[in-house]
Write a structure and sequence with these properties.
about 90 residues; 2 helices; two-stranded antiparallel sheet; Alpha-Beta Plaits; alpha+beta
């Protein structure tokens, strides 16, 4: 399985758009655009998981720098999330 980061997304891109773009290269197990918790608005990046590593690498090579709804997207293998201290709320 390969987890792929997709950045510089137009705010209008939805999960289904990512799934459609990446499914041309193989089986997509999940595709999620990350949205702001408070507003629900896209943060301009997302993640795609592909079941086959070779297919995922082909998708990265083909889609990195490609245009999606007027923006050139950045596509690369996702790095593991670093542990960060949780932000404290002032509420």
């Amino acid at each position: 399985m390969l987890n792929i980061y997709v950045g510089n997304l137009p705010y209008s891109v939805a999960d289904e758009d990512l799934n459609t773009s990446f499914s041309e290269f193989g089986e997509v197990t999940s595709a999620h655009v990350i949205s702001d918790r408070d507003t629900g608005r896209s943060k301009g990046f997302g993640f795609v998981e592909m079941s086959n590593t070779d297919e995922g690498q082909r998708a990265i090579e083909a889609l990195d720098g490609s245009e999606m709804q007027g923006r050139n997207v950045r596509v690369n293998e996702a790095k593991p999330r670093e542990d960060r201290p949780r932000r404290r709320s002032n509420y």
